[in-house]
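Worked problem 6 (solution included).
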Amino acid sequence: MSGQSQRLTVVPTVTMLGVMKARLVGATRGHALLKKKSDALTVQFRQILKKIVTTKESMGDVMKASSFALTEAKYVAGENIKHIVLENVQTASLKVRSRQENIAGVKLPKFEYFTEGDTKNALTGLARGGQQVQLCRAAYIKAIELLVELASLQTSFLTLDEAIKTTNRRVNALENVVKPRLENTITYIKGELDELEREDFFRLKKIQGYKKREMDRQLASAKKFADGQVAEKISLQKGISISSAQNLLSAEGGKDEDIIF
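Solution. The predicted structure is:
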C-alpha cells in the first residue's frame, strides 16, 4: 500500500514512461540547483551571523563611549546644550539610503549611511566646551554608523533565514516526495510494460500453436481425402472393396503410385 501511495496514477504506456523519465530528470536537476542555492545561502548566513556578533560586541563599547562623551559635554558646556544644538540643526547631515544585494537569487536589503551638507553644529559650544561638544558629536556619529550597519545585518539575517527555510523545504520535498514518487511510477510502468510484453509473447505462442494444429488438421484431412481417392482407384482397378484397398495401401506404406501403375 505504501508503494502504491507513493506513485502517481498514470496509464502504463511507453509515452508516459518517457514523460515520467523527463520529469525525473527535471526534478533531479532542480534538486541539485536548490541544494547549491541552499549551501550558498547558508555560507552567507554564517558570515552575516559572525558580523552581527562582532558588531554587537563593539556596539557596547561605542555606546558607552558616546554616553560618557555626552556627560562630559554637559558638564563642560552646561545642561542647556540640548536646546542650543536643536536650534542650530536645520537638516540632517547623516542620512541613510537602502539598496538591494542579490545573493543566489535572494534580494537582501542593505542600508548605507552617507553625509550630505553641513550643519551649524560646529558653532555649538563656541563660547565654552566647544571641543567637548565636537567629541560628543563624533562619538554619536560613530554609534549611528554602527547602528545602521547592525540594522542592515539584522534585516539581511532575517531575510536569509526565511529564504533558507523555504529552500530547504523545497529540497526536502523534491528529495523525499517528488523523486521517490516519480521513481516508483517509472518502476510501476516498466513492470506493467514487461507484463504486457509477456502477455503478447504468450498470445503469439498460443496463436502459433493454434495455426500449427489447424494446419496439421488440414494436412491430415487432405491426406485422408487423397488416400480415399487412391483407395477408390485401386478398388476399381483390382475389383476389390474400398476397405481392402485401404488395407493394401496401409500395408504398402502409402506407395500408392507403385500399386496403381
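Discussion: Residues 254-261 have pLDDT under 50 and may be disordered.
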